[in-house]
Amino acid sequence: MKRVVLLCLLPALMLAGCSSLRKGSSRMDSSSAKNETIDNKMPEIVVREEKVKTIEEQGPDTYFRYYVIIGSFRVLDNARSYKNDLKNDGFSAVILENENGLYRISVGAYNEENPARANIASIRSKYPKHEDVWLLIRRK
Predict the structure, then answer these.
(1) I need a labelling partner for 33 at 20 to 30 A (CA). Which of 14, 100, 113, 138 fits?
(2) Beta strand pairing call for 66-73 and 34-36
C-alpha cells in the first residue's frame, strides 16, 4: 500500500517542482548558486554570481552590481516575448546575457544589495506568480 501512495504522489511532486517551467522560464540552478533564508517567513532567495552584459537592444551597457532576475531563457526570442509579457504586470525589464549564453530577464538593477533584496521581497508579496525571483550579483 505504501508503494501505491508513493506512486500516486510522484507525478504531483514532479509538477510542483516544475512550476517555473510552466511559466516559460527556467531556474538555472547550479552548484554555484547559493540559497539563503532571510527568516522563517520569507522563502529562500537564490543568489548567483555571473558575468553578464546587456544585449544590444537595450543600448549601451550600464554597469550595475546587483540584478533582480525574474526569468531565464536559452532562446533570445523567448526572452523577448517574456519581457513584453512583463509589461502587463507593470515591469520595465532588461535582457542580460551571461557567459554561458543564457538570457536573464532583469526587473531591477542596483549598486547596493539591500535595495535589490527589498525589491525581491516586494515582488514576491505583490506577485505570487513570480515567487521564484532571484538575485544576480555581477562578477567583474
Answers:
(1) 14
(2) unpaired
